[in-house]
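Internal ticket - ligand job 172, zinc ion:
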Amino acid sequence: MIDATEAERWMRDALDEARAALDHDDVPVGAVVVAPDGTELARGHNRREQRADPTAHAELEALRAAAAALGSWRLDGCTLVVTLEPCAMCAGALVQSRVAGLVFAADDPRAGAVTSLFDLVRDPRLPHRVEVRRGVLADASTALLRSFFTSRRYTPQRQGARVDEWGGLENR
Ligand SMILES: [Zn+2]
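stdout (structure tokens):
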């Protein structure tokens, strides 16, 4: 697992990547995959609205790019650094990809599947478990998400996203 200093360094990159989602009006979530040798393998950000794809979360974008770069679905020894606690889909993908570590920033109390609602990546019933570091630069990620949700004008057709609660994250 990468140390606390490295985790913060990579989280800054993940936050930069998250900001790229703002260019296409997607919820700003970003992810970086760090190789076992401590170099960057791939990164990705949320493109759900841009692609009209329910699976285009930052984590899956980054994992797909990392696997393509390696030419292997197995991401042994890699660490995924992401600005928001992964949902059930992405937590499942982390287990499937066999990553060694997960670093995340803000908790997602409405959909998080690593701490908040479930703990899929450390469930002993599954064949692979992931080491977790939680809360790295969480305030910066929370500020970015809040500014996104409060700056948008919501209309009923925007899938129920609301400013009035942190549950705006359900729109990610
Ligand atoms: Zn997800």
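Auto-summary: The longest strand covers residues 40-45. Residues 57, 59, 86-87, 89-90 surround zinc ion (CB under 6 Å).
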